[in-house]
Amino acid sequence: MGFAHTSITVRDMVVSIAFYERWLGMRLERRHPIESNRADIAFLKDTDTGALLELTWWWDKQDWTEGDELDHLAFHVLDVAALVADARKAGVEIAKEPYSLPGATTTLAFLKDPNGIWIELIERTGKG
């Protein structure tokens, strides 16, 4: 198990990438659309620590409220299905059941922490 990344929702992907590169020294690792989620994502890496920041631009998002930018925190886990089952038994809210994106080498799921913050669980299921 281990912390994977923090994800924030952005209003403009190009402007946001430029900001984090220029002012915080981050480097764009990868960027791509996720059709099934109707979103574009980009991962930027801190060149000193290796920490990852995920930027998410939702295609259909029109309303913005200051403070809604934190999208989720992500953690690598060994067994998504088992962790979700245990969390459910303990009364933890499951925000999204385990699933895989087409062609992905990971299984994902989302829980909600006690404050309503989405927690992404990532299980590597193959090499990629």
TrEMBL record:
SUPFAM superfamilies: Glyoxalase/Bleomycin resistance protein/Dihydroxybiphenyl dioxygenase. It holds the Pfam family Glyoxalase. GO terms for molecular function: lactoylglutathione lyase activity; metal ion binding. It is an enzyme of class 4 (lyase). It comes from the Archaea. Residues 2-124 form the VOC domain. One of its GO terms (biological process) is methylglyoxal catabolic process to D-lactate via S-lactoyl-glutathione. Keywords: Lyase, Metal-binding. Its EC number is 4.4.1.5. GO terms for cellular component: cytoplasm. This is Lactoylglutathione lyase. It comes from Marine Group III euryarchaeote.
